[in-house]
Each structure stands twice: as structure tokens, then as C-alpha cells.
Design goal:
This protein is an alpha+beta fold. The chain contains eight helices and 29 strands.
């Protein structure tokens, strides 16, 4: 038994191998025919399969049902975007439809708004072969809407700038081609809107800017108001922004007039501020070295006390030039002229130092009655009188003046009562007259 089994096994293996290889060509043909037959059967039966479409947009139908009643209609929370729509149909139809999301036609008819006033049923179909579709299932069934009373307001458009211009330059006038904005939308949103701005970035500019700027709305706290539910009659405005060069220049001033009798100006004038910053086109301000205030602005005529006057420096800026920062500086310049009453004092003149002027030709002058000193009263401001100190003041006798005052054309020998005139600094005058007898005698030489 043990000896025969191996022989039997070898015979069986040889037989099986021969059986598998017999008619091999026929068997291959049979296999191919079977596959083709399966393929034909499958195509004839056309099995049902599914196709998923993502992010399908829902079209709102008949919105005028709401809007014609003076209301606004807004979709809530992106509910008009269906995450997925599953289509079940024969495989050949699915192949024809393809994978393009536009194949799905999703609508929400406002005529079918539910009683809750916020839900609208979604209806889905396909762009073709609709009658061959077994089912269409969206992942959400309703569009959620918000319906509010519509409100319209009108606002001024303010132009702002952001960023920093180049050093030595400032932002000048900001003008938009439209200054009014109409805003409409849900009442609750429109009521939040308080201001409208169009902002222009000026960073690094040294020349004028002309550009289109977006309009942004803000609430009472200065926070932006979302505009997706609002309608604006314009979204942008053209804005022209001046970029001006700046320069610091001193203020020059003058004074006219004479104070009241018995008063004088000290010569001290205060100017606050003494320097202003001007702005304008660079070619213009390069030619300006100062701003001059005329004397008419500081007229001390008849004054008995310090004169203080405020001057609008803008009135004296050249054409096309302005103050660099009118927002923080009003442009007012304060001028103060100091005025004090005159004081009297007495000075002493040494007669030996008298200077004789315009002595007639051929004569010499000398005192007729010798006196060593002469006292004269003077009037002037305290500060000027104090400056005289104890310095010697020269007295002058001028025969030219004497001749004019007394209508003399020719002098003779004799004694003349002459006015002794002290040589005083500006601002001080003699308030008394001292006469000295002076003898003219022929010059023996």
C-alpha cells in the first residue's frame, strides 16, 4: 500500500495537467466572450448610481413679493449655499450630467415663505434629463431669511488720510468729487450708520494725489458697519489730496504813531509767536524768507498805556501760501508795544565845555558873565534818563539857529542872549530853557 500511493499520485497529477491544457485557445475565446457578454448586460440594464455636488447656490425667486412692500430681504447665515446635493439616476444619465455644480438648479420661491416668516423651502432640479432623475436630495431643506422695514438715509462723505507724508511736507486740502452718500437697507443696520469716510493713503508722498477711494461706514463708537446688507448709491469717490511743502519763517513787524502827550514808547515790542510754519508749493515757499505785519496793525497814536493787538497772520501770507497746521494754531499773532509816562529830571552842564556853532565869520564868542555850571530840566522815559547816568552832557550854542529865530542876517559886536541846547540822546528832550549871555567880538587876527 505504501509503495503504490506515490505512483498513483504521479498519474493523477499528469492527468489533471493534461486536462487544463487541452483546448486552451477555445477556453480563452470563451473567457473573452463571457466578459463581453457581461459588459453588454451591464449596459443594457444601466444600474442606478449617485453623484454628489458640493456648494450649490440657491437662487431666490420673486423677491419683489417682499421688497415691493417697502421691506428688505436678506439671506441669513449663508443658508442660500447648499453644502451638498445628492443626485440618484441611471449611470448613463449621471455620466451625461457630469460633475459641474452648475448642473444643479436650486431655487427658493418667496411666494412659498412659511408662516414663521423666516424659512423658504429649497427646490432642486437638474439642468437636463430631469425626467430621468430618480431623486435629488439637498443637505439642507430651507433658506433662512430676514425681513425688515427698509430705511434710507443721506450722509456727508468725509475724506481722511492715513500714513505719513515725507518729512517737510503736510497734507493740505482733501476734496472728493461727491460729498453726499445715500444709504438704504434694513432699518436695524441703517440706524447704526453715523458717518461715512473715504480714506486715502499718503505714506511717502511729496506731490498731490488723485485717486479713487472706497467708502466705509462707521457707527457711533467709530467701529465699521458691515455693508453686505446695505445698498449705497456709490461705492467709491474720486479724491484729490494736496501735499504741501512746509517752512518756518520769522515774523517781522513795525509800529507807527505817537502816544499821548507826556507818554512815550519804550521801543520794546513783544511778538507771540515770533516764528510760524507756512505751507505751499515748494517753488513758492522757497522764495519766502519772512512774514511782514505792517505798522498800521500797531498804531500807538494817543495811547497812554501798553498797546496790545491781535493780528491774523493769514491776512499777510502771500497768495497760495497758508499756515501749516491751522487745526492746532489759529493764526493769531499778539503784538504788544510798551508805553510809559515821561519823567522829569535835571542835568548839569559845565559851561567850560560849551560848544559854539555857526559863529559869524570874523567873530569869536565867549561868555559875557562867567558861570561854571548851568542846570536844565529834561523829560524822557525813565529807562532812557537812567542811561544818562553821570556822563558829561555837552551844551551847544548855535548862532545859526539864533539868526533864524531872530531874523538876523548880519551880526555885530555885542552881547546876545542865546539858548543853551544840551546834546541829548533820542527819546529825551529839554523841558526848560536856559539863556546864557554870549559876547561876540571882532577877531583881532
Amino acid at each position: 500500500m505504501t509503495i503504490k500511493d506515490p505512483i498513483k499520485n504521479r498519474i493523477t497529477a499528469r492527468f489533471n495537467k493534461k486536462k487544463l491544457t487541452d483546448n486552451i485557445g477555445l477556453k480563452i475565446v470563451a473567457l473573452v466572450v463571457a466578459i463581453l457578454l457581461w459588459y453588454v448586460v451591464v449596459n443594457i440594464t444601466d444600474p442606478i448610481i449617485t453623484q454628489t455636488y458640493k456648494n450649490v447656490h440657491v437662487k431666490i425667486l420673486n423677491p419683489e413679493v417682499i421688497t415691493d412692500q417697502g421691506n428688505t430681504l436678506q439671506v441669513v447665515d449663508d443658508s442660500a449655499l447648499i453644502p451638498t446635493v445628492t443626485v440618484k439616476a441611471p449611470r448613463t444619465i449621471i455620466q451625461e450630467l457630469g460633475s459641474n455644480v452648475d448642473t444643479i438648479v436650486a431655487t427658493a420661491d418667496m411666494n412659498k415663505l412659511l408662516n414663521d416668516g423666516t424659512s423658504v423651502p429649497i427646490e432642486c432640479t437638474v439642468s437636463k434629463y430631469a425626467e430621468k432623475i430618480e431623486s435629488i436630495r439637498p443637505s439642507i431643506d430651507y433658506v433662512q431669511v430676514s425681513i425688515e422695514k427698509k430705511r434710507i438715509i443721506q450722509l456727508p462723505i468725509s475724506v481722511t488720510t492715513s500714513g505719513e507724508v515725507e518729512s517737510g511736507y503736510i497734507v493740505g486740502d482733501k476734496v472728493s468729487n461727491q460729498n453726499q452718500l445715500r444709504v438704504s437697507g434694513p432699518q436695524s443696520v441703517v440706524e447704526r450708520v453715523k458717518t461715512a469716510f473715504a480714506d486715502v493713503s499718503v505714506g511717502g508722498f511729496t506731490g498731490n494725489i488723485s485717486t479713487m477711494a472706497d467708502i466705509v461706514l462707521y457707527d457711533e463708537e467709530g467701529e465699521p458697519v458691515p455693508m453686505d446688507s446695505l445698498e449705497l448709491n456709490i461705492d467709491t469717490v474720486r479724491v484729490d489730496v494736496e501735499i504741501l511743502a512746509t517752512k518756518k519763517v520769522p515774523i517781522y513787524y513795525s509800529m507807527i504813531g505817537i502816544p499821548a502827550e507826556g507818554y512815550g514808547v519804550t521801543g520794546e515790542i513783544e511778538c507771540t509767536p515770533e516764528v510760524v510754519t507756512i505751507a505751499g508749493e515748494k517753488s513758492k515757499i522757497d522764495n519766502i524768507s519772512s512774514v511782514k505785519i505792517p505798522g498800521e496793525e500797531l498804531n500807538v497814536t494817543g495811547q497812554t498805556d501798553n498797546l496790545v493787538t491781535n493780528v491774523d497772520i493769514q491776512d499777510y501770507l502771500p497768495e497760495g501760501i497758508r499756515l501749516a497746521d491751522p487745526g492746532s494754531y489759529s493764526g493769531k499773532v499778539t503784538l504788544k508795544a510798551y508805553i510809559e509816562p515821561y519823567e522829569e529830571s535835571t542835568i548839569t552842564i559845565n559851561t567850560k565845555d560849551i560848544v559854539y556853532k555857526s559863529v559869524p565869520f570874523g567873530f569869536e564868542a565867549e561868555m559875557a558873565d562867567y558861570m561854571d555850571k548851568a542846570e536844565i530840566k529834561i523829560t524822557g522815559l525813565k529807562q532812557d534818563i537812567e542811561k544818562l547816568g553821570s556822563s558829561n552832557i555837552v551844551g551847544v550854542i548855535d548862532f545859526g539857529d539864533y539868526a533864524l529865530l531872530n531874523n538876523i542876517t548880519e551880526f555885530e559886536e555885542g552881547v546876545y542872549n542865546c539858548v543853551l541846547t544840551p546834546e541829548l540822546p533820542e527819546g529825551i528832550r529839554a523841558s526848560s530853557t536856559v539863556l546864557i549871555q554870549i559876547r561876540l567880538k571882532k577877531n583881532e587876527e
